[in-house]
Amino acid sequence: MNHSIAYIVDHASDIDEEILKKHQVYSLPFAINFSDGEYITGESIDRESLFEKMKEEIPTSSVCSMDRFDQILDKLRA
Q1: What is the pTM of this model?
Q2: What is the pLDDT of residues 19-66, one digit of tens each?
Q3: Burial classification of residue 10, based on how many CB atoms lie within 10 Å of its CB (0-12 exposed, 13-18 middle, 19 or more buried)
Q4: Of 33, 26, 10, 17, nearest to 76 (Cα)?
Q5: How far is Cα 48 from Cα 43, in angstroms, rounded to an integer?
Q6: Which of 4, 11, 17, 76 is the most exposed place for a label (fewest CB within 10 A)?
Q7: What residues does 33 pair with on adjacent strands?
Q8: CA atoms of 40 and 57, how far apart (whole Å)
Q9: In sequence order, what E strands does the chain have?
Q10: Torsions phi, psi of 36, nearest 5?
Q11: How far from each other are the two terminal CA atoms of the chain, in whole angstroms?
């Protein structure tokens, strides 16, 4: 892909998949940490499950790993 500008957001932006594809926006997952472990948005926990778990506990979160960010950048450079 040879674009001058790329939009990269994280899953917290909650942008519909159709809009992401239409506008070539890249969405990065991030970690949600509950007492029973770490979940990756869009991979090991979906939106509905996240909200259900939040009824019992307020999680912490962290940004995506640099490896994941590098994967997106590599894809954009190709």
Answers
A1: 0.73
A2: 999 998 998 888 999 999 999 988 899 889 999 999 999 999 988 888
A3: middle
A4: 26
A5: 13
A6: 4
A7: 38, 60
A8: 17
A9: 7-10, 25-28, 31-34, 37-40, 60-62
A10: -90, 5
A11: 6
